[in-house]
Amino acid sequence: MESSNRLSRTGGLLLTDEVKKLTIQVRAPRGSDPGEVAIGYYCVVDGYVVLTDADGKRLGSDKRYIGSGDAHLIACRMVRNRKGRASASFNRPVSYPPLRY
After folding, report:
1. What is the pLDDT of residues 73-82, one digit of tens each?
2. DSSP characters over 41-68
3. For residue 57, how many other CB atoms are within 10 A of its CB?
């Protein structure tokens, strides 16, 4: 019997009961801009942090070795880096200073 804290590979899916959720601040609130947070999910598999969706399905092939580090902090960095690539788009509000006449 496989232990419940291990991921099982089924049809390309990674499934586990231990999908952990994290929320990080991507952009601080400023003026009328409420800021932005990113929500991510991760699992720890054989000493590696793997980003997943809420159901435990692996996102991409990126993984980081934990070593003596904190899995939660490593996952936060991975989510921030992943979000950083996406935030280069024009899908975010632009803050302009007030107009003065």
Report:
1. 989 988 888 8
2. EEEEETTEEEEE-TTS-EEEEEEEE-TT
3. 13
Are the beta carbons of 75 and 45 closer than 8 angstroms?
no
Strands 58-65 and 36-45: unpaired
The sign of the dihedral angle between the CA atoms of 71, 61, 42, 13 is: negative
CA 35 vs CA 1, 24, 40, 87: distances in Å: 46, 11, 17, 13
Residue that is written with structure tokens 């950083």 in the block = 84
| Global pTM value | 0.64
Q: Closest Cα to residue 45, out of 23, 25, 74?
A: 74
CA distance 26 to 34: 11
What confidence tier does 46 reach under pLDDT thresholds 50, 70, 90?
Answer: confident
Helix H or strand E segment including 72 = helix 71-86
